[in-house]
């Protein structure tokens, strides 16, 4: 039967387990076999116990759990050609030539590179006597499907990444909790949220939490923004608002590209309003804990689609990123999605904020 390898790579995200479960159970139902590659690409480079078969029962009781039961890692070895060669040997030792990878843009671009080198790697391995010609002939190409697992929701071309909804819930819960203490003291809180170069979590949590002000990388504020922010806080207070809240994306910058830190925002509030403020950096609590209902069902659906993809893929063609567009499952070319994702910080650095927002907003090839 067909053999599929599955791995999770990069930062973990809530819903990764739901995907692993769906992949195993879909594949097993269709008569295929699934091998977990532990600790991301590193398990593939190291081989041995890093690659183990998962059967139906192995993925019981993980649907509702955060993190990833098969581990994740930011593998340096896999970034080297030699590491990828070792990975090919270990895959072939297990008869695997189909991969499902759940990770961020970095993890997915490494995957496409590996696919592109597959034929050359196999030719070299045969010449070096590490695999037989028969094995090479039986696995002429690597087929894959990429799924985006990241709380950041930063991949251009897909509406939601696995984990983003759960992280957003966690942030909004924290904002609600901070709100009650803020209101008691009539105090302002500056909340710093994750997202790397992407302002999705900050923007959406500020809206969902009814916050006063938000700073995101894609829309750097005009010079003098500190006064604008304080004026907004003052207006709120005058209107009877007791809990003031400012959300700062960890990647927020001003128009010159200088990072805007939560500590800086707090100090600006103190200097301008003569009022004490407090900073809360939410940190990894955003990535931990149980996946939301959305992340459970959406990840299950994506896992199913990924199996269908790798079982029916045309050998020799590049694999897609599978995600959602307009509440439908969509397949987008991996290279294009990664290139556009990387373009966003470049556009921001070049001062073309409108184009950055346009890309983030999602006008992908419709
Ligand atoms: O990409 C997910 C993410 O949580 C980002 O939001 C954050 O910038 C980064 O990972 C933190 O990385 P680490 O877990 O290595 O500290």
From TrEMBL:
Cell location: Cytoplasm
Residue stretches making up the Phosphofructokinase domain: 3-307
Source domain of life: Bacteria
Family: Belongs to the phosphofructokinase type A (PFKA) family.
Protein function: Catalyzes the phosphorylation of D-fructose 6-phosphate to fructose 1,6-bisphosphate by ATP, the first committing step of glycolysis.
Descriptive protein name: 6-phosphofructokinase
Annotated organism of origin: Propionicimonas paludicola
Residues of the full protein shown: 41 to 406 of 772
């Amino acid at each position: 039967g067909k053999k599929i390898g599955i791995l999770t790579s990069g930062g973990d995200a809530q819903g990764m387990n739901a995907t692993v479960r769906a992949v195993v159970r879909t594949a097993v139902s269709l008569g295929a076999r699934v091998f977990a590659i532990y600790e991301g690409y590193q398990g593939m480079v190291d081989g041995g116990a890093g690659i183990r078969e998962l059967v139906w029962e192995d993925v019981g009781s993980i649907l509702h759990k955060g993190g990833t039961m098969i581990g994740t890692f930011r593998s340096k070895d896999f970034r080297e050609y030699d590491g990828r060669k070792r990975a090919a040997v270990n895959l072939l030792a297990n008869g695997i030539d189909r991969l499902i990878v759940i990770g961020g843009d970095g993890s997915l671009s490494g995957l496409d590179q590996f696919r592109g080198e597959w034929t050359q790697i196999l030719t070299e391995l045969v010449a070096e006597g590490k695999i037989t010609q028969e094995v090479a002939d039986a696995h002429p190409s690597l087929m894959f499907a990429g799924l985006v697992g990241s709380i950041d929701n930063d991949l251009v071309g897909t509406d939601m990444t696995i984990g983003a909804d759960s992280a957003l819930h966690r942030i909004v819960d924290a904002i609600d909790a901070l709100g009650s203490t803020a209101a008691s003291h009539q105090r302002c809180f500056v909340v710093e949220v994750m997202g790397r170069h992407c302002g999705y979590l900050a923007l959406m949590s500020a809206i969902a939490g009814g916050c006063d002000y938000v700073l995101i990388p894609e829309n750097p504020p005009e010079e003098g923004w500190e006064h604008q922010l304080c004026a907004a806080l003052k207006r709120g207070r005058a209107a009877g608002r007791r809990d003031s809240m400012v959300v700062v994306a960890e990647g927020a910058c001003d128009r010159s590209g200088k990072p805007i830190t939560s500590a800086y925002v707090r100090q600006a509030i103190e200097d301008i309003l003569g009022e004490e403020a407090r900073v809360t950096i939410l940190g990894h609590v955003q990535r931990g804990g149980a996946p939301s209902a959305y992340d459970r069902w959406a990840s299950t659906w994506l896992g199913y689609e990924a199996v269908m993809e790798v079982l029916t893929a045309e050998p020799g063609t590049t694999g897609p990123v599978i995600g959602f567009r307009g509440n439908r499952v969509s397949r987008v070319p991996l290279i294009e999605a990664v290139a556009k994702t990387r373009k966003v910080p470049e556009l921001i650095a070049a001062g073309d904020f409108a184009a950055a927002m346009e890309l983030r907003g999602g006008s992908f090839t419709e």
